[in-house]
Design a protein that fits this description.
Helix content: 10-25%
Shape: globular
CATH topology: Nucleoside Triphosphate Pyrophosphohydrolase
CATH architecture: Alpha-Beta Complex
Number of helices: 5
CATH superfamily: Nucleoside Triphosphate Pyrophosphohydrolase
Strand content: 25-35%
Structural class: alpha+beta
Oligomer: single chain
Order of helices and strands: HHEEEEEHEEEEHEEEH
CATH class: Alpha Beta
Low-confidence stretches: none
Amino acid sequence: MSAAQAIAPGAHDPRADFLARASARLAQDPPGPGDRLSNPRGDHSLDPAGDAVAPPEPHRRAAVLVPVVARGGPLSLLLTKRALHLRDHSGQVAFPGGKIDPADPTPLAAALREAEEEIGLAPSDVRPLGYLDPYLSATGFLVTPVIGLIEGEVRLAPNPEEVAEIFEVPLAHLMDPARYELKSRLWQGRTRHFYALPFGERMIWGVTAGILHNLYERICL
């Protein structure tokens, strides 16, 4: 049985399988200067011709929470739709998260703080599982994804200043590589390549889709 099948509906214990894989394959410490920070993955890595240039340093540090939800059946992943009035990335599907403040001791602390501010998720309701490799956005943000487990029902309250909607996607849907399409568009005078995958009427793309594809590579391959 593949890892994708193990977390799919009908699997014997998708929660236990996912936790075992996360424990074995995710980094337990935040990335340091020698851990892919000098040459991080990002949308620039997806250029089929290999001609894309990574945004130059200094990169702005950010962290996001990738919340995996377990309620006794198939696993799901919690995502948000950004408010339409926001100046940057309005209406896009995103993870809870944002810039790492000087007062944040770790990317985990930043991700949990932002998740509480954006969707009302209490830090005590999240079981941190580990870190993925940082992802460099086209706008120069170096994003550290923190994988966290949410068990059972939790109380959420979206901040209307930042979040228009909270929704969940079956994890098996996101861990199916056939659903990812490599797309491109002209952005600021150059061609940008990025992953995109549909979920119903929604389109998950850009940094969010790139991080999800990295999670598939780490957990399922």
